[in-house]
Write a structure and sequence with these properties.
Chain lengths: 327, 306
């Protein structure tokens, strides 16, 4: 990070000071509100992506949100939260590119407020609640800087009726391996065939590295989840995903996997339009994509074939109670 | 980067690529990419001199604007003050849509060493409070130049404070330029001309010219960074030219033209080439061309291979 913007309100926060110490040579720029920089108009997301700044901010207002319908792994009460905005990776299909004006990384340093809100949200329900991290960012990729995972785990250790999903593509699993596994935490990896990782998931760990991280987490006793989402169309779809499933099933103790979910590439119309402007030559956007129920996605028959193939392969290896299709 | 307008939509065609005169003319397929054109904006002749000399700029007449040009640079001398700066910047960018970046270079007052050069990380219009945050380049690309906040005043002031530099134009330039360009493509570089030790009264045109020498490397580095960043952008000039050539021959509505551009992009992405013009032009109507391209795109294989 070459430039660090710091909201005046969190200038003296211990996390701000710790993060700033990691970047002694960066420009440290005081700002009043992170939205002045992050939401400014006329930003070039694509150019910023090659040189993003870090914005340290206070998250005010609502910090815990209900998940969209269909976003769950069996729980009744499902919420997501974002201690960061934006991702260090550059996946061509990512909806964040369509959602934000800026490619800068916002880190909310007031994680104590997130934890308090999680506690009070969980207390509203008699049954277990789920909290999903990694919706607007990767849960682990910037953890060496944010150390959010440690804060989270310490907190969830005290909340046996609250579940945490850490969604990631990252191999930054040291904080997880450094402690005893928690029964109410699932580390969920997004997985794609290596040819798609190489072509569309720029800057992410390879499939082999993700599987290695999953193996180590399983061996350490952590619950792991597999997220085949988004499935991307290709003429050789069955070959690509067939090989992916074979590799994953061979590498992991599948019976012990907490949950498996599956979702086909889909984007809100406006986000798709912005992605086309940013990346007109993106291969995945050159595939047949059409509007359906407010989203841009593959034609119904294509989606049906993709889902059918994947489900039939998954059926050979996982139990029905492990499977959660995403809509 | 300029937002929203392609060089071709704006009427600037790459050199040597005439439009099709008729269907018998073969569409050329070798196109050149658009060049980055950086415009330096100063207020005064004393601030302009160093750039005119070093970059070998020549005066070019343009609608009453004081404009100088070379192949890769323009220099606009706006006159003093926020309003002059805003109106001249807007007039230039409206007239010259090929400008891809703007750098405001000039002198300013601040609590820093006389002659030191600063890159703006924030520009604030002192009168309205409105502010802009340019997206800063990596420090290595601009020689670790210190950054500062610029407050644009309506009158000169000498109430110097730490980290703040006074000027009279930057907010006007940012206000106008941000309508046309993204935050990565508008910057301000200021040289300290007055400070608590040497006040406003000591500034002469000769001193300003002498001080501005120090800003030249910074302006060059910013321009180089902008050009390098532009090379990683979307070079769609081949598609744009092809698109222009087709709609010059076959009538397309605005909606048809958008669909045609997208289909040409998809075709090139999936097949690695633009369609053969001999196949498209005889089709004669926008609808037939679109159907032909839709079929070609659907038939093109999208494969991921290692």
């Amino acid at each position: 990070m070459d430039t660090v913007y710091i909201e005046r309100e969190v200038q003296s926060h211990p996390r701000t000071e710790r993060i700033c110490q990691r970047y002694p040579n960066a420009r440290h720029i005081l700002i009043e509100r992170h939205t002045d920089v992050f939401n400014a108009r006329s930003q070039d997301f694509r150019q910023q992506k090659s040189n993003p700044a870090l914005i340290l901010a206070h998250k005010a207002g609502k910090r815990i949100h209900a998940t969209p319908p269909g976003y769950h792994v069996g729980g009744q009460h499902n919420y997501y939260f974002s201690h960061m905005l934006n991702c260090v990776y550059d996946c061509r299909y990512c909806f964040l590119q369509g959602m934000y004006q800026s490619a800068n990384h916002v880190v909310y340093v007031n994680s104590e407020d997130f934890m308090q809100d999680i506690t009070s949200t969980a207390a509203r329900h008699d049954t277990d609640s789920w909290f999903f991290s990694g919706y607007d960012c990767d849960s682990l990729a910037l953890d060496p800087i944010t150390r959010f995972v440690d804060d989270c785990l310490e907190h969830f250790e005290q909340l046996p009726h609250a579940w945490l999903e850490l969604r990631t593509k990252s191999t930054q699993i040291r904080p997880l391996l450094a402690r005893a596994p928690l029964p109410n935490v699932v580390v969920a990896y997004s997985l794609s065939p290596q040819a798609i990782v190489a072509a569309e998931e720029h800057g992410t760990p390879s499939l082999a590295k993700r599987l290695d991280a999953l193996q180590r987490l399983q061996a350490h006793g952590w619950k792991v989840g597999l997220r085949f989402d988004p499935l991307l169309y290709a003429e050789n779809f069955e070959e690509l995903y067939g090989e992916l499933f074979d590799t994953v099933f061979a590498a992991l103790d599948i019976a012990a996997v907490h949950s498996v979910s599956l979702g086909v590439f889909r984007l809100p119309k406006g986000f798709h339009k912005k992605l086309l402007r940013l990346y007109p030559k993106a291969r995945l956007l050159a595939a047949p994509i059409e509007p359906r129920e407010g989203m841009m996605t593959y034609p119904e028959e294509t989606e049906r074939r993709m889902r059918h193939f994947c489900q039939s392969r998954l059926d050979t290896a996982i139990r029905p109670d492990q499977f959660f299709p995403c809509s | 980067m300029r937002r929203g307008v392609s060089p071709h939509e704006s009427g600037h065609r790459p050199a040597g690529r005439p439009a099709l005169a008729g269907q018998s003319v073969r569409v050329a397929i070798q196109y050149t990419s658009a060049m980055s054109l950086v415009c330096i904006i100063t207020a005064l002749p004393a601030e302009s001199r160093v750039f005119i000399d070093a970059l070998k700029l020549r005066h070019v007449p343009l609608r009453g604007l004081r404009l100088y040009a070379s192949e890769h640079y323009l220099l606009l001398q706006s006159g003093i003050g926020k309003l002059n700066a805003a109106s001249a910047t807007a007039a230039l960018l409206q007239t010259r849509p090929d400008v891809t970046a703007v750098i405001n270079a000039g002198i300013g007052g601040g609590k820093a060493e006389l002659g030191s050069v600063h890159l703006a990380h924030q520009i604030q219009d002192a009168a309205s409070g409105r502010q802009w945050y340019p997206h800063l380049p990596p420090q290595r690309t601009v020689g670790h130049m210190p950054s500062c906040s610029i407050h644009t005043l309506d009158k000169p002031d000498s109430a110097y404070t730490d980290g703040v530099l006074f000027d009279m134009e930057a907010a006007g330039i940012f206000s106008a330029a941000s309508t046309y360009l993204s935050t990565e493509a508008v910057h301000a570089v200021k040289v300290i001309s007055d400070n608590p030790e040497q006040g406003l009264d000591a500034i002469t045109p000769e001193l300003a010219t002498q001080l501005m020498q120090a800003s030249l490397p910074a302006v060059r580095q910013l321009s180089d960074w902008h050009r390098a960043a532009g090379r990683h952008g979307n070079d769609d000039s081949a598609i744009e030219q092809y698109h222009q050539d087709i709609i010059a021959v076959v009538r397309h509505s605005v909606s048809d033209a958008h669909q045609l551009r997208r289909l040409l992009q998809q075709h090139q992405t999936l097949t690695g080439k633009t369609p053969e013009p001999q196949q498209l032009l005889p089709l004669a109507t926008a609808r037939k061309i679109r159907l032909h391209l839709q079929n070609a795109v659907q038939a093109a294989p999208l494969r991921y291979e290692l």
